[in-house]
Amino acid sequence: MGFHHVALATKDLAATHKFYTEVMGFSLVKTIIGPVPGSPDGWARHVFYDTGSQGMIAFWDIHDVQWKDGYPTDINKAVGLPGWVNHFAYFAGSREFLDERRKNWTAHGHMVAEVDHEFCISIYTSDPDGNTVEFCFDTREFTDEEKVESLQLMMAEKPPMDKDAKVTIHPPTNEALVH
Questions:
Q1: Tens-digit pLDDT string for the chain (179 aa)
Q2: b vs e for 69-97, b when ≥16 Cβ sit within 10 Å of the residue's Cβ?
Q3: Are 124 and 132 in contact (CB under 8 A)?
Q4: CA–CA dist 116, 32 (Å, integer)
Q5: What is the Cα–Cα distance from 93 to 138, expressed in whole angstroms?
Q6: How many CB atoms within 10 Å of residue 67?
Q7: Burial class (CB in 10 A: 0-12, 13-18, 19+), 100
Q8: 118 backbone φψ class: left, alpha, beta (φ>0; ψ -120 to 50)
Q9: In what order do the strands lie in the sheet with 5-9?
């Protein structure tokens, strides 16, 4: 069973829309306008994006006097965690798709971290609200031995460290400067 959608707040709907359509490659499929519960004058816009596979991502654009000074939208920063902890990983169906997304992200001015996790390859960047997004391409199936070992490692008081993942940083390209 998968997610229907994940919903987040945004401070700048125009920047969020541009990022999720032009940078991520998603498409806007639905916008709902409604009242803010318990507020006589507040209203909110709830926008939904098709991610190209199972599930959507949605954003709340909230207009209410109680949040006139804004609200935190970076889910990691808001709780004092590093940016890599809470993130949204999207399925990449091929290595070619992953490479296309990476090139598109850098062309739009985003730094991209690429990590070879040995069983998958991931690329990471941040959206306009500071939330980490990822595209992930599975490079192989999990073995039966890994599945058994996973429970042992999960239950171990001090498990051994895995080998270091291979990390490559891709800076924004010059193309980003002309946009």
A1: 678 999 999 999 999 999 999 999 999 999 999 999 988 899 999 999 999 988 999 999 999 988 878 889 999 999 999 999 999 999 999 999 999 999 999 999 999 999 999 999 999 999 999 999 999 999 999 999 999 999 999 999 988 888 777 999 999 996 655 44
A2: eeeebbbbeeeeeeeeeeeeebebeeeee
A3: yes
A4: 39
A5: 8
A6: 14
A7: middle
A8: left
A9: 5-9, 56-63, 43-50, 27-35
